[in-house]
Amino acid sequence: MTEEEKERNVIVCRCEEITMGEIRDWIARGYDTFDELKHILRVGMGPCQGRGCREIILREIAKMKNVPITQVDPGTFRPPSKPVKLELLAKKEGGE
Amino acid sequence: MAEEWKRSADVVIIGAGIQGCSIAYNLAKLGVKDVVVLEKDTPTAGSTGRCAAGIRAQWGTKMNCQLGLASLEILEHLHEELGMDIGLHQGGYLMVAYKESEFEQLKKNVALQNSLGITSRVVNKEEAYEICPTLSAEDAVGFTYHHRDGHADPFLTTIAYHKAASEKGVRFYKFTECTGIKVKGEVKGVVTTRGEIDTPVVVDAAGPYSQHIAAMAGIKLPFYSERHEILVTEPVEFGVCPCMLMSFSGNYYIQQRPIGSIIAGCSPEGHPEDYSLGNTWNFLEHMSRVIVKLLPKLGGVRVVRQWSGMYNMSPDKQPVIGESKEVKGFYISAGFSGHGFMFGPISGKLLAELIVTGTSSIPIDVLNYDRFERGELIEEPAVV
After folding, report:
1. Residue of B nearest to A78 (CA)
2. Could you write out the DSSP letters of every residue in B263-297?
3. Which domain holds residue A48?
4. How many other C-beta atoms are found inside a 10 Å radius of the C-beta of residue A46?
5. Which of A47, B112, B220, B301, CA to CA, is 20 to 30 A from B322?
6. Looking at domain B11-50+155-223+316-374, which of 3.40.1550.10, 3.10.20.30, 3.30.70.1250, 3.50.50.60 is its CATH number?
């Protein structure tokens, strides 16, 4: 296996089990923003909310588009910043 | 990146959500390949990608039943047609009525649906609990169910159309906003943030911004856009809520996705109409209470994300699909009132047929916007 092939097999998003190869293929097809990759591959939608994969993917986009990473849109961050149990949110304290 | 700019096209579509992508694909399939789609963000970044992913044929008007059923039939074979998985899961919609009058309306809807070939039915509480094993709805008075309703992934479905259309020669320009329509008696072209394109046909598929695009052509659409909020949980074992639970008086829709996470939304009072897409803590609390009451076993499941999206509301909650009678060459596919994703596969096909042949395989004359002026509204009773 070449270095390139080995790298392609690396799991970039552990929540959704997405490999570097899949990321590179979709960037090459023109889906070259973090949010587009998120829509197609669910990277950043798992319980870790992109904490594990975002940096790696942004770096890959920068490399493939040949632009500085500072010019790559980091994509949307959504609340809550940490997963919260439904029963905690549903607790009535101080009314509606 | 340097990308070739097309100065002219046979058709320019505004918006790369489900409508724009489905129309573009269907035009190319009918042989019209000189098509440009303008998208101010990225494909599915607007209302399509924010929707609850539901697909159903349980409607209360003949038109919507026909569109809903025809769309299901396309979705059932879309993977083969477009060559990409669309995350289809047909676990049915279980409609829950809490009032007698509401149950009467649901029963009327079922009779209409059955007359149009939709095999929906009234189910009792025991059957409802079999369909949704963790449901607790002791206060409900009745249920209806249609097994072919369910879920498709809005991102994958739209990207599948987008990719298939691109492969047929359609050009998509992302991060390119339409800022004007050139009209001289009829459509002549569009002005964008990146340049102009001459074209005799413009399609307004701009979702929540459709009324703004129409205004650029001098057409007044009586639409408004309202923000709806939604949440999704971490994935849990599939089967907790395999169908879509939906109630009009209960004001909720809740469904487990095939990957295990649960999506839930409602229609709170006083929708902001300011085109913002914020999130509120109130929604999170309210929705969590609704979920825990209906599905008590889910208390320990965590919410991972909340977001919002806009419904493009029409006066009778039915879309406008067709050509403008005021401006030749200006076509509209908008005003879906929260149901654009599920109708996209059929509405895109019908509009493409209209553009190419002048007629559509399902008659949709009643969906022209002049119905609002004539007062011939076709009010849809089955909307959350």
Report:
1. B305
2. EEE---SS---SS-----HHHHHHHHHHHHHHSGG
3. 3-90
4. 23
5. B112
6. 3.50.50.60
Over residues B269-306, the pLDDT tens digits come to 777 778 888 899 999 999 999 999 999 999 999 999 99
Domain B90-149+227-310: assigned CATH number: 3.30.9.10
How far, in Å, CA of B151 to CA of B154, rounded? 9
CB-CB under 8 Å, B301 with A47:
no
The rounded percent of chain B whose pLDDT value lies above 70 is 99
Residue A96 lies in a domain: no
d(CA B336, CA B67): 12
B167 — contact with chain A (CB < 8 Å)? Answer: no
Q: How far is A63 from chain B (nearest CA, A)?
A: 13
Q: Is residue A95 part of a domain?
A: no
Interchain proximity B299–A87, CB inside 8 Å: yes
B157, B288, B307, best to mutate vs chain A, most A CBs in 10 Å: B288
Question: In this structure, is the dihedral angle defined by the CA atoms of residues B292, B298, B302 and B307, taken in order, positive or negative?
Answer: negative
Q: Are B94 and B131 in contact (CB under 8 A)?
A: yes
What residues of B are in contact with residue A40 (Cβ under 8 Å)? 155-156, 159
Cβ-based neighbours of A91, under 8 Å, separated by 6 or more: none
Q: Give ipTM to 2 decimals.
A: 0.92
Residues ≥6 apart with Cβ < 8 Å to A80: B284, B303, B304, B305, B306
Whether B286 and chain A come into contact, CB under 8 Å, resolves to yes
Give tens-digit pLDDT for B127-156.
Answer: 999 999 999 999 999 999 999 999 999 999
Residue of B42, B155, B303 with shortest CB distance to A33: B42
**Residue A66 φ/ψ region, left for φ over 0, alpha for ψ in the -120 to 50 degree band, beta for the rest:** left
Buried residues in B307-322 as b, exposed as e (16+ CB within 10 A) = bbbbbbbbbbbbbbbb
Amino acid identity at B52: A
Q: CA dihedral in degrees (B56, B57, B60, B64; nearest 10)?
A: 100
